[in-house]
Design brief:
Keywords: Membrane, Transmembrane, Transmembrane helix. By secondary structure, the chain is an alpha+beta fold. It is 57% helix and 21% strand.
């Protein structure tokens, strides 16, 4: 199987996982990636604020 990520723009990553049987796994991967990006952005923002203060 091949899994690849396509960057649409700065706030949207599209994950491709061919196979209709894996549609649910695909959805979980996209949701997980989105949550991970949000957490990373929050962490970076907090670190930047900490340095700024």
């Amino acid at each position: 199987m091949v899994l690849w990520v396509e960057r649409i723009d700065s706030s949207h990553l599209e994950v491709h996982w061919p196979g209709s049987v894996l549609a649910f796994a695909h959805l979980l991967i996209v949701m997980g990636s989105t949550l991970g990006l949000i957490c990373n952005i929050d962490n970076d923002y907090n670190e930047i604020n900490g340095i700024g203060l």
